[in-house]
Automatic annotation (TrEMBL):
One of its GO terms (biological process) is lipid metabolic process. This is PNPLA domain-containing protein. Pfam families: Patatin. It comes from Strombidium inclinatum. Keywords: Lipid metabolism. The keyword Repeat does not apply. InterPro entries: Acyl_Trfase/lysoPLipase, PNPLA_dom.
Amino acid sequence: AVLLANHTKGEEPAAADRMEKFWVDASNSKLYKNWLGGIARGLFFEGGLYNSAPLEDFLKKEFIDVNIKRSLDLGIVDVLDGDYKDFSDKNITQGGNLIDAMYASMSFAGFFPPAEVLGSSWFDGSAVWDLDIFSGVNRCKEAGFAESDIIVDVIMTSAANLKQVQAEDYKSISMLFRYLEISSFYNSMDGLLRAKFAYKDADFRYVITPTGSIPSSLYPLN
């Protein structure tokens, strides 16, 4: 979303190329590392299983020259008070605060420690909204568009259907990931249905889902 927002209308092919480059760069970069003492230290003595400092360095390299040219909204959650915080093109410009907001939005609870940025500690926004459609629609309404003129395209974070599994041999970690898969599915569907109910006049044009369930792993972003 940030890379698309870095391009004006009509520059979508360039934005697509830049997004592809980002994911190629990410797949060839080490985005986190083990603590000294490994996962055991992360489990008992740190805020997450892995040290995400390399992720922050990667984001600084990839986004330091980004200028926001479109409407944008990043949702993150304050660990201290549980509040959901919107960071948009209104309060994100470029450089430091953009990197901080993105780093916070990629701090997945349990896997990575909370991001100590922006004067507090932050998790990614999925702790509150697995799928935040409301912020996007409300931004359009704030810009003066009638609800009937708003077109919504949604990319789901879970498959269209929850697959049946054979869980007889699942152990603790496998059960945890199955729980997270079920929770993500229902939270995503709930977010979509709530938005459709709240904005009855909006045109929910496309809902795009993965063709299958997204594999779970002890190795995030893998």
